[in-house]
Amino acid sequence: MGRPALNRRHFLAGLGGLTVAGSLGFAALGTGADALASSASTRVRYWNLFSGGDGANMIAMLDAFRKANPGIDVQDSTLQWGSPFYTKLAMAAAGNRAPDLGVMHLGRVAGFSPGRLLDPWDVGLLAKYGVREADFNPELWKRAVIDGKLYALPLDIHVQLCFYRKDVLKKAGLLGDDGRIVPVTSTDEWFDVLKKAKKATKEGLQTIGLWVNDQNFQWWFFVAFYTQLGGTWFNAANTEVTFDTDKATQVLEFLRRHITDGYANPGFGGGAGAEQFLNGAPFVWEGNWSVPVFSGAKLDYGATPLPPVFGKQATHAESHSFVLPHQSDRGGATNEAAHQLAAYIVQHAQQWAAGGHIPAYTPTLSTAAYKKLNPQSEYVTAMDHQATEPKVWFAGSTGILAQRVGPIVVSSTLGSAKPEAVARRMKGALTQLLAMKNPMDGKTAAQGGAIA
To answer: Rounded distance, CA 405 to CA 432, Å?
Structure first.
């Protein structure tokens, strides 16, 4: 390939940078390492959805790659998070205008028509650049395999956590000798912890923030505790709903009790839980992406996976993963450079861990540098007990499953519907979704080859 052409980000920068880029759904990224005068012989076009702190960390890793590999010009573009990103990625792949490398939530891969809109990874090329299956959690790697081929390369897992204020819990007698929250193994123990913490909480603050009116968070929490109970969703062939309404009811009653017992205030919606935590509330259930916020505020706090109140450890987890959007002519130096770039980022994810994410590349987790990270090293065990959505086309971050079932969970948590009735409604919604056809390829879950 000849000298890389002027890329879209360079063009946008010339028209006024971020303002113009934002109007087109992109954000300009990168540094002088990706300058117009690049003499690189190979170009890799890379689309991602990382903004804020994650965006800054990704830029740092990309710039490190550019410095180490001056022969590869990485042209990175950041698109709007959520459905807009997936829509643009699908349209680009379908129209043979796809980037060389992209990022997706692992839960969305099964629904992205692998083999049609996504190309499989060359595991031989990944191994050439130091990335092998043995370096990943087995269950995480398995989720990335569809019809025997690897369609996603996990960068991390990001999980829902129980953040706690050590100053408040120490006052309440809820810290162990190791300076961490006392162990909790049942619902009774958990509500006893909340009762003691409430007595040590400043007036005007709720005891725990758990996004009681947010469909995504409530769904994520449900997935975690339903998994703790050993609940299942569908049979192996994805032809039958195996959702257990009795177990679902237990989870719904547990979530609801946080409000009825006065520990969570339904009037504090959205991100108010995090704000209250900053102001002295003892607990908040949040994603690990809140770590930079709480650490930046210099709080004396800890973070653990969601409490195993039903006897089994499981906390909701998703994964940012690298994918190869379909290209009819994929191959050659550009394809190899895309493999090299993804492998490099995965292996150099210490910077990524600063954002709270747990690196998927397990050798990173055993390094002295990672073990020094707090509270990251406290919740790293979440890698071994991930509660994930079923591996079907309608699941995954911002997917149809959360959109359909999340609001139903919220109706129980807020008390507008009874848990038993909500559990039945959830099963009905799952039945409808199982019969739906994926608009990407016109296949139902049973026809889509979504089983590893």
So the answer is: 11
- Residue with tokens 């995504």, as numbered in its chain: 216
Reported pTM: 0.89
Please list the residues that pair with 181 across neighbouring strands: 175
Angle 369-359-44 (CA atoms, 0-180°, nearest 5)?
110
What residues are paired with 209 via a beta bridge? 284
The single-letter code of the amino acid at 220 is W
| Residue 84 confidence (pLDDT) | 85
Asked if 189 and 352 count as a contact pair (C-beta separation under 8 A), the reply is no
b/e sequence 363-387, b meaning 16+ C-beta within 10 Å = ebbeeeebeebebbebbbebbebbb
Q: How far apart are CA 72 and CA 100, in angstroms?
A: 13
Q: Which amino acid is located at 450 in the chain?
A: A
Counting Cβ atoms within 10 Å, is residue 278 exposed (0-12), middle (13-18) or buried (19+)? middle
The one-letter amino acid code at 270 reads: G
Q: Structure tokens of 384?
A: 């071994």
Residue 274 · residue 209 · CB < 8 Å = yes
Put residue 46 in one of left, alpha, beta given phi > 0 → left and psi -120 to 50 → alpha.
Answer: beta
Contact 365, 358 (CB under 8 A): yes
Q: Which two tokens stand for residue 13?
A: 């920068």
- In this prediction, residue 26 carries a pLDDT of 34
**CA-to-CA distance for 381 and 186, rounded, in angstroms?**
19
Residues counted in the chain: 452
| Residue pair 286/273 in contact by the 8 Å Cβ criterion | yes
In degrees and rounded to multiples of 5, residue 410 shows phi and psi of -60, -40
Strand residues in 306-343 grouped as ranges (E): 315-318, 320-325
- How much is the mean pLDDT over the chain? 90
Task: Indicate whether 55 pLDDT > 90.
Answer: yes
Q: 142: Cβ–Cβ under 8 A, 6 or more apart, which residues?
A: 452
